[in-house]
Fold this protein.
Amino acid sequence: MKKFYLLSALFIAACSHKAPSVIYHLQDLLDHKEYFKLDKALQSAAPDLSAVERTYFTAFTDNAFNKNQGCIASVDSLFGKNEPAISDSVKAKLLILQGDSYFKLGQYAKAAMNDSLIIARYPKTVDQAILDDVMNELLIRKALKTTPAQQTIISANTTVHWTRDSIGLIEIPISSGGRNAAAIFDTRANISSITRTYADKLHLHPLDVSYQEGAGITGAQFQVGLAVADSLMIGNILIKNAVFQVMPDSLLYIAPVKFQLDIILGFPVIAQLGEFQWYSDGNLTIPRTPGTSTLHNLALDGLDPVLNLVAAGDTLPFHFDTGASSSVLYSTYFAKHRAAILKTAVKKTKTFGGAGGSRKKESYVLPSLRLTLDNKTVSVDSVSVFQEKITTGEKLYGNIGQDFMKKFTAFTVNFQDMFVTVWR
């Protein structure tokens, strides 16, 4: 498939003499998930774009910066009078994007409808791996279609005390169904997870569904189910209709360290808090009213938070993962800085663990990596760099974990204005 298919499919008639090169640039940034650069480039390119072109790229930036109503409206606009000029491959891509925004808003039935349209109308226009993902997501969304959207009620500023478990992961206290528990606070868990044992203990309502899930760094694939917590408490914060994927206890058991994970709070719960302030002294504060900033260094790749950092002189997007004890760099980073890595790093075989087990992987270990966030630079020691891709669609440059967070006395992560600020 031609990389910049939009030109032939959607925009050629409307292009000015400058627009083709502008669209090439914008589409290249989008293809590489350079959301921050795309947002800036789109603003400066606005005079060279038609209304349709602006709407198309704005749909993607709105989705990336958690403006889901805007994304949905933009896609609806493109599917209006412009639909005859849009290729099937673009229609499928827009339906996937809009479905993601519907899901983030808890509009599960509409998200399921988009998936069904893709499967029914465009099965031959998307890659098989993407189609498989759509079919898997349809199982989730159909199972949730009668579930009300998650609702979070924050009546006052709330502070809870976090602790580290025996493997160093951040846990916070929660309660549900009259029972107290500790949950791992994990920004990269796309859906909150729970063992079958704890789903029963906390009286979650199971849904009749089974679907495939994967574990990031290990690449493991496994079958899981779904359940809903009618009410979930974090301090004085009430969360209604929180969705959990239910996993066999064995899948959340990390055998090498003999540790059982029970509950993982993931993106849908964390993002709806609006803002959290993490302090190294053991406190986690959720303000009633989130702050504002023009920093704009946080984005979303689907349900994955993305942090804009400076590394080795480059401003690059990385996954942001409070559920990872250590940071790793992906093959994209290796390709970009190959010479420097081969000069300074040591090749090692290390064991990486997560849901579904653990795996040994070869990596280059950098003695240190300097990272800059919010004009503050720190050095993280012993960072692994993978030479091979973890996933076929890998575009970002790494996964930033707690070894980076520990370098600061406080973090503010805001999902409304989409920014992260830090204090040393």
Q: What stands out?
A: The first strand starts at residue 151 and ends at 153. Residues 157 and 288 are 5 Å apart (CA to CA). Residues 298-423 form a domain with the Cathepsin D, subunit A; domain 1 fold (CATH 2.40.70.10).
